[in-house]
Amino acid sequence: MSILADHYYRASLDADRAWPALEESTRARVCVIGGGFAGLNTALGLAERGVGEVVLLEAQRVGYGASGRNGGFVFGGFSRGEDALLRELGPQRARALYQGTLDAVELIRARIRRYGIDCDATEAGAIWANWFADPEVLRARQRLLAEHFGVEWQWWPRERLRERVRSARYNDALFEPQAFHFHPLKYAQGIAAQAQALGVRVHEGSPALALERDGEGWQVRSERGEVRAEQVVLACGGYLAGLRREVDAAVMPIATYVMVTQPLGELLDGALQTRAAIYDSRFAFDYYRPLRDGRLLWGGRISVRDRSPRQVQRVLYRDLLRVFPQLAGVRIDYAWSGLMSYARHQMPQVGRIGEGLWLAQAFGGHGVAPTTFAGERLAAAIAEGDERWRELSGYGVVSAFKPAGLVAAQASYAWAQFKDWFKDKSERRDR
């Protein structure tokens, strides 16, 4: 097996777009710090609302972090489960928040069409496959979504699932028809290009080194330039900028792992008779999807540390063969890890944290739709005075208690893995 050094998404771009570094002192109405989905969606949302003089600064490349390296699943919801949202917020507020992410899925679809973004969008839904024999976890979620969130996921019995997913590993499943999957880096570059076309000044290779009050506004200093802005949006995710201690202290950068196989040809058809995205019902779940060029993308695991491509391949290859032993011997062409930002409460931190200072972070591995949702909330707040960002105010900037919090997060994940293993082993023993 061989691994190419770069990740698949970067290597598979038809044309790798680039934006210039900031090399001047400039003024802006809004300065967005971070060129991932949260920052890009905020900038584009502002531009679509007619807000001029928006500057976006990205320390590396557009989509460099989790936004350009993730699994590419586009569906509703947050990392925090729907049952927890109901307990904490009540049915009306929980449904409104969840609906915001469903609306975001449709906005992503609409932008792909409206702006002609070629991002390999695959309209095939998503499958939540049951790793365990007990169907109640699926049935309970299906009922909860239908009764409290107005969402209908289809029940697939084991026979129907195995017609489409050729694995003896799974039992029944739920199918989410509204979901789709795409090439996230192509999409990130596409919305950056559209934001630029609408007047946003996008700058790569321009880390924000200092953030200070400047009269009634803010001064953002980069390596070779600075931005004096009326308002600033911090959207740095797991790649902390070191600009505000309380902001960085509120998130844990957590790594996840992804690999991509060689083009599989008929072997892919022997494993999948669907083009849907798939993930399973464990806490420590696998997620995977077929790609347009006949490869299989496979992701999973989380950790408080990055691993080398070789280590990622070794861990995920074992996971792949547990589900599809018929793929033994296939070559892995790409393997990588990347950092996501998690909050202790497992919800995004979105809103105003100071006069003219806004925040969008902690999307916790479930960010494609929620980052779009957050960008719309912040853009509407800044452009129109819309107060709906306060819907998330109950999930604020709370300390992640690092480094102890990182140790606790890893221990919690290991405990969840053990419970998954024990439940699976118990079911097999009782058969």
UniProtKB/TrEMBL annotation:
Residues 29-380 form the FAD dependent oxidoreductase domain. This is FAD dependent oxidoreductase. It comes from Lysobacter enzymogenes. Coiled coil: none annotated. InterPro entries: FAD-dep_OxRdtase, FAD/NAD-bd_sf. GO terms for cellular component: cytoplasm. The lineage of its organism: Bacteria, Pseudomonadati, Pseudomonadota, Gammaproteobacteria, Lysobacterales. SUPFAM superfamilies: FAD/NAD(P)-binding domain. GO terms for molecular function: oxidoreductase activity. The keyword Oxidoreductase applies. Keywords: Oxidoreductase. The keyword Oxidoreductase applies.
